[in-house]
Amino acid sequence: MPRPRCERCQRPLAHCLCPLIPDLASRTRVVLLQHPSETAHALNTARLAALGLTCAQLQVGEVFDDLQALLAAPGYRPVVLFPGDDAQVLQPYNASPDPLPLLLIVPDGTWRKARKLLYLNPLLAALPRVTLGEVPPSRYRLRKAPQPGALSTIEAVVQALNVLEAPHSFDELLRPFEALIDGQIDAMGGQTYARNHGGGV
User: Fold this and answer.
1) How many domains does the chain have?
2) 145-197 per-position pLDDT tens digit
3) 25, 116, 154, 200: which could form a disulfide with 45 (CB 3.0–4.6 Å)?
4) Which residues, at least 6 apart from 16, have a Cβ–Cβ distance to it below 8 Å?
5) DTW domain: which residues (predicted)?
6) Any idea of the CA torsion for 76, 82, 88, 91, to the nearest 10 degrees?
7) Predicted TM-score (pTM) of this structure
8) Are 60 and 36 spatial neighbours (Cβ–Cβ below 8 Å)?
9) Does residue 52 belong to any structural domain of this protein?
10) Between helices 175-188 and 190-197, what is the axis angle to 10°?
């Protein structure tokens, strides 16, 4: 029999993360486009990001039919957070000549599936791309980064908002994520974690 789950954070009731999820306002509007394969992942960080930001939404799918209306939201500059040769490094709003805040589109999935989302949604692929500059090492201690500088979705969102809206900090958004990681490590045991992931106990 499946364990009862919290309808909001989707975690088992005994491990509900809702008390740790903040309610943070931002100038930036964040839209997380999640590949369907990520929804059942134990560490669904895009969902945590969407729950912790008042100006964020999560959509699940491969093809997003309402993308045109979404991108036409008045008062925002739509961009997609995705690396590439033509991607511009994010800069603080107070250093930008354009007064409009960003509509930050964030694909959520493995690199291959995130690229597939761009391919299947030409409007998304046509958007200007932005990327993070210097980033700290990921706190995602349970998954080996596919390349240097790779972050989980929630970490990427926090880093982007910290840059854009400096000196305001969005680090509080990481509290449920870190608790989730700690819980997974506790469940597997310190020795198993150290053996499989090279971490300390």
Assistant:
1) 1
2) 445 457 889 999 999 999 999 999 999 999 999 988 877 766 665 555 444 44
3) 154
4) 6, 9
5) 2-189
6) 60
7) 0.86
8) yes
9) yes
10) 100
**Cα dist from 147 to 48, 143, 161, 180, whole Å:** 23, 11, 22, 23
Domain span at residue 120 reads 29-59+72-84+99-132+151-189
Domain contains 115: yes
The answer to whether 156 and 81 are in contact (CB under 8 A) is yes
Q: Do the beta carbons of residue 153 and residue 105 sit within 8 Å?
A: no
Tokens read off for 129: 């791309």
Which residue type sits at 16?
C
DSSP secondary structure string for all residues of 12-65: BGGG--GGG---B--SSEEEEEE-GGGTT-SS-HHHHHHHHBTTEEEEE-SS-T
Calculate the alpha carbon distances from 181 to 18, 65, 95, 141, 187 in Å.
Answer: 15, 34, 35, 7, 10
Contact present, 48 and 176 (Cβ < 8 Å): yes
Q: Position of tokens 């000196």?
A: 167
